[in-house]
Amino acid sequence: MGAYKQFLASDIIVAPLEVNKEFTFIGASQFTGSNVNIDRYLGKNIINSLFVPASDPKTGQVTSQFQRLVYDSIKQLYYSNYQTSVYGDPVSRPILVPGRDAEGDRYIGSLSNQAYDNYLQSNLTYPRFFPTSSDSIIGVISIPNYLFGDYIQPNSFILQTENGNFTDDGEGNIISGSEIVGNILYPHGIITLTGNERIYSSASNAASLPGAVYASATYAANIYGSSIPANSVINNWTSSLINAITSSNITCSFSSSYTIYETQYKCTIRENEFNSTLNPSAMLGSYNTGSLSGILSDNVTGSYFDPYITTIGLYDEQQNLLAIGKLAQPLPSSPTTDTTILINLDR
């Protein structure tokens, strides 16, 4: 037997709470465990056919995908606006001016805008480089959402490889050394490694940057002071990218972010409520025969017999018990002041 009291809207408060958890995986074997499955892919720009032949190279540490499809998918989703410029491809669009003249609305002029939503992570202007030449390769790291939750916490991603480290800058860019060499999509759990298009004037400047290409002053047929042909461009990026995707000697760490919602129920007991027991054994009559009078027995009506609250149940509109809250210790029901009990539920 229980006593019911309906909640008001003001008695229920739902508050979001963001929680974070850090993960670190050392060695490729941890990436493919039963509870991890962080996958790494190589994407390749194969342009010799409109279709995917069965002989196309595949990639993937956990699941197998065609390298061509990995390249095309990343290009379509995240780099559609960055094919002619690392700062975005402008698209001219007319502007609608309501009531421009007596004839009504008119489209006039043009507006530079982007044609696709490439999931930009910041309102700051950062370059996005995507290689488009034949047989260009990119790297993709895919973290499952049960690990990163709602999104990867900015400034938390670190990929350590034999050829250097890759970190995110909190604005959606992947940094190696001092260069932007890719992007991270925090709410998608996707990290792309695409390199960059910087040309350096000396090998010494570029050697420490995995994403760098360089050329130098020439002497006769070779780059000055070396045996490298003068018309060649040295690319240190390819080996670093392949190592990051295929090597077993790597470490990946990041922090997840997940929002849980805490519901608080405010149970207010007025001074004139619940001041007597509802236990059937305390009433006159017989519980077994159903002849309870609803009148309390004389032995429980004294001033020293006050009910104590030990449990609060939450019910739906059909009076089905949904949750039970237990108090740490019995709480006497006050006949002189209101009593408020707070119940918090996380989900």
Description:
Helix 4 (203-206) links the parallel strand 14 and strand 15. The longest helix is centred in the first third of the chain and has 12 residues, at 67-78. This protein has three domains: 9-13 and 263-346, no CATH class; 28-80 and 116-249, no CATH class; 88-114, no CATH class. 10% of the residues lie in helices and 39% in strands. With 347 residues, the protein is mainly β.
In terms of quaternary structure, the protein is single chain
How would you spell out the order of helices and strands?
EHEEEHEEEHEEEEEEEHEEEEHEEEE
Q: How would a crystallographer describe the biggest sheet?
A: 11 strands, antiparallel
Shape: elongated
The amount of helix comes to: under 10%
Low-confidence stretches: 199-234
